[in-house]
Specification:
The complex is a heterotrimer of chains A (292), B (279) and C (287).
Chain A (H helix, E strand, L loop, with lengths): L1 E2 L9 H38 L4 H4 L3 E2 L4 E2 L2 H32 L2 H15 L3 H19 L6 H25 L3 H9 L4 H30 L2 H6 L17 H8 L5 H28 L7
Antiparallel strand pairs in A: 2-3
Helix pairs in contact in A: 1-11, 3-4, 3-6, 3-8, 4-6, 5-6, 6-8, 7-8, 8-11, 10-11
Chain B lengths: L26 E12 L2 E12 L3 E5 L6 H8 L9 E9 L2 E2 L7 H7 E4 L10 H11 L5 H14 L3 H4 L12 H13 L5 E5 L7 H13 L5 E5 L3 H7 L2 E8 L2 E9 H6 L4 H7 L5
Helix pairs in contact in B: 4-6, 6-7
Chain C lengths: L1 H42 L4 H5 L2 E2 L4 E2 L2 H32 L5 H15 L2 H15 L6 H25 L3 H9 L4 H30 L2 H4 L19 H10 L5 H30 L7
Antiparallel strand pairs in C: 1-2
The chains are: A mainly alpha (292), B alpha/beta (279), C mainly alpha (287).
Chain lengths: 292, 279, 287
């Protein structure tokens, strides 16, 4: 009796060596994520010990110089920026994909798709820079000051829009042709076909794309840092300047020491937790199919 | 009558009644109670068969009765298919093929395989043939060149490719590619050749050329050919074995000389199949 | 009755069409505005001197020569480390693991999680591990190693695709001929998988150059030409950040630097797109 599992290795000695070498390499690659978690926790340790988890949400404010480490205003900043940007980018992104696939003439669709792909490749620091020199004065003219939650929302929306559009485009492509043909045979109009037939079929792919980009919106640092004003406060209007968790880390890491530095690592852990929760929700809803 | 490539000294086509048996029956491969499972599904069950040396044995039967699986178990190609389980015994010239300590590399040098779809490597024609030789340790340039020329002559490709040995193998036609694959299998001087429907992916002309080649291999090699083309089996086989699906797994229904199977079958199923009533 | 129904339907159709076209026009307008703005303001300061001279007066004058050198060095370290690890892992996942093996699944999951980690967290990790624990301080090496962690998932995914697209017939024939897996890999599979590898490489480079947050606390801000890999160096993205946020009057050169960066990235992503369409016959999107 012989079974395949035990015999996939041949007798060549180089093969054995190769397999062990590759296993070693793959273990390194697989271990990086673990290493990251370990170091985050290690560096965050002092703050969790000296300051305690509760104080990260109950201290009077975020003022490391005086030993105050309340993350809540920045959490609100992150949340509002994320929700706002996703609310704007999702419909625009999906509509763009629908445009590309069902409404645009083929030549226009090709150019448009190329446009979106190029937009998706622009780095966040460039978006931030443009936001700083163009959008901030613009919004400042409508309602001072310029740097604000609104500016942040608009910039991040512009940033995640192309990727949502591309992922939506991919989902729409995966809708089987026979659904479309069936709808046309029934005499359904284009809009109705898209609403009633295509969207339900592409639902999970679209949803997954949106979730992944929401994760990216949470993690966005540079652009937000450059346009939001970086005042630690819970925003009460769209025009209030805010500071997100990510921007906070970027700003203070350069000079933070001791507990302050550890507290920044704690906010890093909070970020990871938020993203993990998001991805877990997406995974559960799409039944593990998000990674294709 | 079909035109055949003129190759001196080989029988190309004789009606079944007049064909001589190839040789004294001399069992070379003994298969006892062989069963193969893919995970839980059985591919074939309890096959007992004797393959005679130097003869062409055809495995016939409709698709899906385990003929190809049977073939791939003879050179332990099943090892690389996940979830495969083989039980029973295979002995090649006394060597226990299924023993865990058997040197599969040596086994695969003695048993060559040609697949249904021609798949020469994406290298030059020369490299396709040189690669296996070098891998198995042959280093002498002259010997390599001599071996390559011999096998290319054997498959009738030498004149067609001798001036473009460095051109890509994939640029050849389907029939030429399949003959190149045969040359590649032959270059290691195997004793047994396993062929899985070698002509089914080829056009009729190339198919005829390859078929003549196979006939020309008789007595120098032991050939086991899977085919669902009964007419082809009638033309070239010395021995035949019929596979059929029964009880959810492939079974060996009947085996014997080609004359017996095609003209005087004992089993009613065989009779029905070779007469085209079932299939 | 039918007539009003038709008119209603037409109304809905018109609305949907308008919505869709407006979205497309809006997006196109934003794109043109952004790129046009950068092109317009940046092109004036672009010149050969700009690309080669060192920055002066905190970057308001001079050029970005040393910055480009640092960027290239950081990229070099990043690729030098992530290529072997990435290709090795991809080979293992594609060729040597069963689809349902525990090791394979764990590795893949861990890489998927890795690709979702935000860049600022990589910055934290890089600072804690490479700069502090391994003692590399603010250096090209720190930055490059941190970036290689970020680029790894992209490289592996694409290279694995490349291997999976090689027809199984080759592997079967090679096994039937008794060839060693090492030879099969080196002579047959690797050359055939090169397109996937190249696409992954190009996408990885694109991601690495665009990175800012991860480099801020790992490779630092120094704007001289670095003397060794242990020296600190400023990448192009960091330079743009510094000029726009910390240097009053630095906008002009920030525009020019942004133009250089965007042009580079457009070229890189365009190459990846072209490569994947013509060689892999599949679209791999720079996400």
């Amino acid at each position: 009796m012989i079974s395949s599992g035990s015999n996939t290795l041949s007798r060549w000695p180089t093969d054995r060596l190769l397999l062990w070498l590759l296993r070693g390499i793959a273990t390194i690659a697989g271990a990086i994520v673990l290493l990251i978690m370990v170091f985050l926790v290690m560096e965050a340790g002092p703050a969790l010990r000296h300051v305690g988890v509760a104080r990260f949400f109950t201290d009077p404010s975020w003022h490391p110089a005086e030993g105050f480490y309340n993350l809540t205003p920045m959490l609100w900043g992150t949340l509002f920026a994320m929700v706002g940007s996703v609310l704007i980018a999702t419909p625009l992104g999906i509509l763009s994909a629908v445009f590309c696939r069902y409404y645009a003439p083929p030549a226009v669709a090709r150019i448009y798709r190329k446009l979106i792909e190029l937009l998706a490749g622009i780095p966040s620091v460039v978006y931030g820079f443009w936001g700083l020199v163009v959008l901030v004065p613009l919004i400042g003219a409508i309602h001072p000051p310029g740097p604000s939650l609104l500016t942040g929302i608009v910039i991040v929306a512009i940033m995640i829009l192309p990727t949502i559009a591309l992922m939506a485009d991919a989902s729409l492509t995966n809708v089987p042709q026979q659904y479309m043909r069936g709808a046309v045979a029934l005499g359904l109009s284009r809009g109705a076909t898209i609403r009633r037939v295509v969207f339900p079929a592409a639902k999970s792919g679209l949803f997954t794309g949106v979730i992944l980009e929401t994760g990216r919106a949470i993690g966005e640092t540079m652009a937000i840092l450059m346009v939001c004003g970086n005042v630690v406060q819970t925003p009460h209007s769209l025009f209030d300047p805010i500071r997100t968790l990510t921007a906070n880390i970027a700003l203070e890491m350069a000079y933070a020491l001791g507990d302050h530095r550890a507290a920044l690592f704690v906010s890093g852990l909070v970020l990871m937790a938020m993203i993990a929760a998001l991805v877990a929700a997406a995974d559960w809803i799409s039944h593990g199919r998000i990674y294709g | 009558m079909r035109p055949s490539t003129p190759t001196p000294g080989t029988q190309s086509w004789f009606p079944l009644k007049e064909r001589q048996t190839c040789c004294e029956p001399n069992p070379f491969i003994e298969v006892e109670q062989l069963s193969l499972h893919y995970g839980q599904k059985p591919a074939f069950h309890n096959v007992t068969l004797s393959i005679n040396k130097g003869c062409i044995t055809a495995l016939v039967g409709p698709s899906g009765c385990g003929k190809t699986s049977f073939l791939t178990s003879l050179n332990r190609l099943t090892d690389i298919i996940p979830g495969c389980r083989l039980s029973g015994g295979i002995h090649l010239d006394g060597l226990d093929v299924l023993a865990p300590h058997t040197d599969v590399i040596r086994l695969r040098r003695r048993v060559g395989m040609i697949f249904q779809k021609p798949n020469p490597f994406p290298l030059s024609i020369l490299k396709n043939l040189e690669f296996p030789l070098r891998e198995h340790g042959l280093k002498d340039r002259e010997q390599i060149a001599a071996s390559i020329e011999t096998v290319l002559r054997d498959v009738g490709l030498w004149d067609e490719v001798k001036d473009r040995m460095n051109s890509p193998a994939l640029a050849l036609s389907g029939g030429q590619q399949q003959r190149l694959c045969m040359a590649r299998a032959l270059v290691l001087s195997p004793e047994v050749l396993l062929m899985d429907e070698p002509c089914s992916a080829l056009d009729p002309l190339s198919s005829g050329v390859v078929e003549d080649l196979i006939v020309g291999l008789r007595s120098r090699y032991t050939v086991l050919i899977v085919t669902h083309n009964l007419a082809q089996a009638r033309r070239i086989a010395d021995y035949a074995a019929l596979f059929w699906v029964q009880n959810g797994a492939g079974q060996l229904i009947e085996t014997g000389t080609a004359k017996q199977i095609f003209e005087e079958p004992r089993d009613p199923l065989t009779r029905a199949y070779v007469n085209g009533i079932r299939g | 009755m039918v007539k009003t129904l038709e008119r209603n339907l037409d109304g809905w159709e018109l609305l949907t069409s308008t919505l869709v076209w407006s979205a497309a026009v809006l997006v196109t307008a934003i794109f043109c505005w952004l790129l046009g703005d950068i092109l317009w303001h940046g092109i004036n300061h672009l010149s050969w001197t700009f690309l080669t001279a060192p920055p002066q007066n905190a970057g308001r004058e001079g050029g970005i020569g040393p910055i480009i050198v640092s960027t290239v060095l950081i990229l070099g370290v990043c690729l030098g480390v992530s290529l072997p690890i990435g290709v090795g892992t991809a080979i293992l996942l594609a060729e040597f693991t069963m689809d349902d093996s525990l090791f394979g699944r764990l590795t893949r999951r861990s890489l998927d999680v890795l690709s979702g980690v935000p860049s600022i967290v990589f910055g934290l990790f890089g600072n804690a591990f490479f700069s502090k624990t391994l003692g590399l301080g603010f250096s090209i090496l720190s930055g490059g190693l941190t970036l290689s962690c970020m680029v790894l998932p992209i490289l592996i995914r694409s290279t694995e695709e490349g291997f999976r697209s090689v027809p199984t017939g080759y592997r079967l024939s090679a096994t039937a001929l008794g060839l060693s897996r090492t030879s099969t890999l080196v002579h047959l599979l690797l050359p055939a998988a090169v397109p996937g590898l190249l696409v992954g490489l190009v996408l990885g480079v694109g991601r690495a150059i665009a990175e800012t947050a991860a480099l801020m606390f790992t490779s630092g801000y120094v704007d001289r030409v670095p003397e060794s890999l242990l020296d600190s160096g400023r990448a192009l993205s960091i330079h743009i950040f510094d000029l726009s946020m910390n240097v009053p009057g630095g906008d002009a050169h920030a525009y020019a630097s942004a133009l250089v960066l965007v042009a580079l990235l457009l070229a890189i992503n365009g190459t990846a797109s072209w490569l994947s369409e013509h060689w892999l016959h599949r679209k791999i999107v720079p996400i």
